[in-house]
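Fold Annotation — chain and its backbone
Encoding — discrete vocabulary of local shapes
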Amino acid sequence: MKKCILGATGLMLIAGLLFGGKLIPYAQTAYDKASRSIEQQVPISFQIDAAKKQLENIGPEIDDMNLQIAKEKVSIKKLESSLERQQESLEKSRREMMTLRSHVDSGDEFYVAANSKAYTTTRVKEELRTRLSIHKTATATLEKDQKVLELREKALNAAMERLAEARSQKTELALQIEHLTAQNRMNEVVKTASKLDQFDNSQLARTRGMIEDISARLETEQEMMSMMPSHYGQIPVSGDSSIADTDVLEEMDVFFDQQDAKKAEQQDDSGEELVSFES
């Protein structure tokens, strides 16, 4: 490890001496070229599969957004219900305070409550003072909760917009990936067709030549066979010829009798010539 570190340090020092301040730009350029070269070596189908995997990883994020939005909707509904109860309580408090004030404004000395008890005007004023303080606090709390509700509703609307945008972008990206997949398949078909053309110029051409040679040999043998007699060891009989009705033996006797007669005549002629010559 020490030798490697020392070696790398030495190379960096030598490179620094050779290139000076240009070392960093040169190194960056070399790194960029190496990165592009490696990227070009990666198959397109592999890159498309990686993009599909990345797109699938977006799914859980969208599902989590759906879950958070659903929870926020439930919380907002609970807050709205709480605000409604607070408003009802404030309205009731206001009505009760206005009733007590009406008693004070009337000038009566005692106020008979719903429990049939009588309260002095001084006690009623103290009650009004206490109720007013509580009412102011409840009103401030209601206003604060209303602002919180408004902020949470705005955040919810923004989250829903982002969710809709994420879904739309996911659909668009899925369509783009399908388009790239189809385009890559078409390119593969074109490459395969090109390879088939090359194969046709080599393998198919040789196969075609072999078939032509075989066909030529068969035609040659057929021509040679047509030049030979069609029957061996049999008496050829023509379909159009007629066979004579005379007996072949009689024909032989006539033929050879004629030959013998010709020979006898030749012998007689030669004997007469010899006698004439002696005389």
In short: Strands lie at 110-112, 118-120. The chain has five helices and two strands. Helices lie at 2-19, 23-41, 44-106, 121-227, 248-278.
